């Protein structure tokens, strides 16, 4: 475990990221009087993070490997512009131990855990070993990577089918295969290995028991360099599609105080055993009987961190900076108690009606919801051309309510208020989800979509279809009137407003 | 005034009845009061149907109508000759300094409103073509001097057929 000397306050932070998370980090930096330094690829020249940062520098063409994921370009820029720290956001370099190490060598403070901690927790088998030492429940699994399909079969029989084949280097659902019976094993073995090799350049596979209808619940932790670890509440992220989270909430509706307390202890023991410093997330599966099992540690700020911020009032980016500067937890052993319930919906540029395929293009119209208990963490503006090169997250809609039902209704209200046009998006999906009786009564599992979602869920209601017909007819009538009576077109002149403003009835 | 609208192949008739500032429409046997305002950002309308408020966008990518409301995009067809007319007499015609008013769909010329040599203002009707049970006043987009009237009253015309040619003023 590495100990860092207390360092001077950071003054210039380079954000090695883009989109909503770059914007999120810039906001905290500006509030704290720290100079925010953005980097951008060619198609991101007009992106919101460039507009909001104090400084912004180009780092290359659109493809991530040639810009945001090019360590030489990013670090060379950081040195040239005299940044003293790098915030990685999530994705890109956020869990890249080699990058964190190179930052340290170059005298740049990496705002995240120490490189050796990232490396240890990034390896799933090493992380399981840490959890075992911390006496945290683990999903029954093979003791290590398997040499071949025969050994996998032996391990699977010992654990009991159904099992899951998993990549040791895995993440994001890649290199994972469910195997229900022994007959499926050989084919799944090859698929999992191929995926793992392609995604991580590492084809070590292990096998663990498949839990049938689990909930995904994770612990937000914050640790300082002095060995103090705080539990900042849990998040339930069960609504997923192919292991990608779509909606997250806190608190977990399935937790009782005793479960939460045991869960918090388990997460903190793992963080202490790993020598964790910074904000991090310990992920667990919760089975139908209320038992939780360690899954993995994400050594970064999570996409869904705002729900924790909404109920605790904390700024997790500010906390990251404080502990990276060497400060102890300012609240000691007594973190702010959570209040109410928060839900986050990920607004993605993808088409739910067409296999959720990602969608690029210009955002023709954007009007984000406002009002009580609503927060938008958006990375885009009206007129922005969504590039094809990056992930599809456009914006996060986060709502807060004194209880879950009020938060859920607020989510529906805010979704109804949102106008987003020009790219395909999943607003209609979220509306379906938030209105679904199983969601309303918090009957959740990671199989929620498989059990409830059909494309018919996205069909317009009979009322909406009729309104569409009437609107089209009104439009056609309007167009006809505009040609027959061009004088009406004058209403579109911008001067009309100006003239009206100067008219006798106008008041200043 | 009547229009035919269709969604997923199902045709519905919409009949409009305007009285003063108020507008009623009849759709599938129901008579509804409607109010429609085009909003500042172009393709977007505020539509009040019996007081129920809807914000809709009507766009025509590639000539096909799409209505977006509540985040969903619904393709709709309107059987109305005007869209094609606008395309035929649009920017290309204006760029040449000459405008040709064409029949947007097969129909019957029921009235000629101009003769060669007439000076017409932008938007002034020049010919009336009856098609799909509707009498459509076809207007000049840019105005100018009528150079040719290519059809006679009571003659059938085909889609795209040139009806009146106009030389634009100042060209």
Automatic annotation (TrEMBL), chain B:
Ranges of residues in domain Lipoyl-binding: 92-167
InterPro entries: Biotin_Carboxyl_Carrier/Decarb (IPR050709), Biotin_lipoyl (IPR000089), Single_hybrid_motif (IPR011053)
SUPFAM superfamilies: Single hybrid motif
A Pfam entry, by short name: Biotin_lipoyl
Name under which the protein is recorded: Biotin/lipoyl-binding protein
Natural source organism: Eiseniibacteriota bacterium
Transmembrane regions listed in the UniProt entry: none
UniProt KW Calcium keyword: no
Keywords: Biotin
Keyword Transferase applies: no
PROSITE patterns: BIOTINYL_LIPOYL (PS50968)
PANTHER family from the UniProt entry: OXALOACETATE DECARBOXYLASE ALPHA CHAIN
